[in-house]
Design goal:
Distance between the termini: 14 Å
Helix content: 10-25%
Structural class: alpha+beta
Number of domains: 2
CATH superfamily of the largest domain: Naphthalene 1,2-dioxygenase Alpha Subunit, Chain A, domain 1
Strand content: 25-35%
Protein name: Phenylpropionate dioxygenase, large terminal subunit
Oligomer: single chain
Organism: Nannocystis exedens
Order of helices and strands: EEEEEEEEEEEEHHEEEEEEEHH
GO molecular function, one term: 2 iron, 2 sulfur cluster binding
Keywords: 2Fe-2S, Dioxygenase, Iron, Iron-sulfur, Metal-binding, Oxidoreductase
CATH architecture of the largest domain: Alpha-Beta Complex
Radius of gyration: 21 Å
Amino acid sequence: MFRGFAHVWTIVGLDRDLKRRAALPLQVAGERVVLFRDGQGRACALVDRCPHRGVRLSLGKVQDGCIECPFHGWRFAGDGSNQLVPWNPDARRERLGATPLPVRERAGLLWLYTAPGLAAPSEPDIPDVLQRDDLSLSGFTMIFDAHWTRVMENSLDWPHLPFVHQRTIRDALPLRPGSRLDISWEDRPWGGRTTTAIDGVAQPITLDYRFPNTMHLHLPAGKRIFELMLTALPVDDTTTRVLMVTIRDFLRSRLFDLYFEAGGRKIGGEDRAVIETSSPREVPPAGDERSVRTDEPTLRFRKVYRDRLMDSIAGEPDR
């Protein structure tokens, strides 16, 4: 299960995306997952497959805090336990459960752990800024026809800004003839922090890589907070679901969410047009492509991917 992306916490959406009486289907690293809320309103996640005949549970209804299979009406609680087998009052329901997955609601986001079971060996690593309660989060998703590693390394790539984003954010890294760009990487427990200098002058933007698949951009906004997070969620080997989240302590009304979304979609569209042409689809070993000094953040990501994720796999649950 979750081949190439196993045993990690990943953001999968905003917590407000998960409604009280509706199933939320997702696909993560080739595995279909369904999220729903139990009778107490808590987020739950199951493998989106009924153990009876393999039907997608997400096609069913959420009833009394359980999800009901659309085929034969079997009902499953948030922990995967079977609560009802119609026509079979004597069924051994303790042996007829679905497969649960760890899920958390933290800081306005939904986090999924990519291995079966109710428990996880760790908890999601929440950015400090999201511990505050005076912020507004808004977000949207885009689908990229690309392997998630190409999307992830693009989000860590400083030098592309004045070229790919000529119509939007090129001034975030102003390019002049003969200029020298220096990029510094600082290891952090959750990944790494990068800063830049142009011709020896430090630039004000900070960019973080948060393992395994999130970029966190800190933008200068005076005394205000304005930050962006991008999560490259693998759907399968050829498709990535990109979640872009804006974090701000101003213009907090939901009415302004569409404004920030419009700008984010334009920037994301510029990236997508280039990323989808990458060959090979998956990032190759560093030596297979020509790299230079300013590629350090992307090369560090490639090493992390190959060392910690590429060969990972979660065992199938006992049936």
